[in-house]
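tool_call: predict_structure(chain=1)
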Amino acid sequence: MGHKRINNKLPIAWEGIPFIITGIGLTFIAIILNWDLLTIPLAVLTLFTIYFFRDPERTHVNDERAVFTPADGKVLSIENLHNGDYRLKDKVIKISIFMSIFNAHINRVPIKGKIAQLSYHPGKFFSANRDKASLYNEHNIVTLETDNKKKIIFVQIAGLIARRIACWVKKGDYVETGQRFGLIRFGSRLEVYLPPDSEIKVKKGEKVKAGQTIIGYLSEAENKK
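tool_result:
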């Protein structure tokens, strides 16, 4: 099923199909039983579920130095961490992206390379736009090694309503830029850690689209074989 999700040809994410079928079924039951007070709310909820789990096709420019946002949403912060943080001790640039319930929630690989490490951590469910969500919420850390042996880390962080992080890749997989790699249900946060001399191309408050918006470029030195 992971292969199907990564190469999905449907306009809806596979993760959403059970929810959508359930919503359609309950709506039809309400119609048949003449439960007028429930029919419209159930229909609206089903339509919203279809909207939430949408999985649009995305194209991107071909640039080996470009790092794309792994998530749709809004840039919450851009931080220069001189001593890293609890996940990474190296000097890095950390970009945090908030995904509201109105964003498409498919996560995409920011730059091609090999999955070097995966690390899942259960946790709490604070609102994903709060800084402490980064520290305490359920999260999944994906470490990618580029073709030039440079490390890019991206972290899926659950939000207030989210109760499941889906990750469809495994350690050792070679992944392509813009490839689907996961999903977080119902509001969440993504963080990307870039080398310290990367050229950042987004700013705080900017809206971004997964697999389309370039958040930064690796330096010439970082990209040189």
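agent: Helices lie at 2-6, 17-32, 36-52, 131-136, 220-223. Proceeding to next step.
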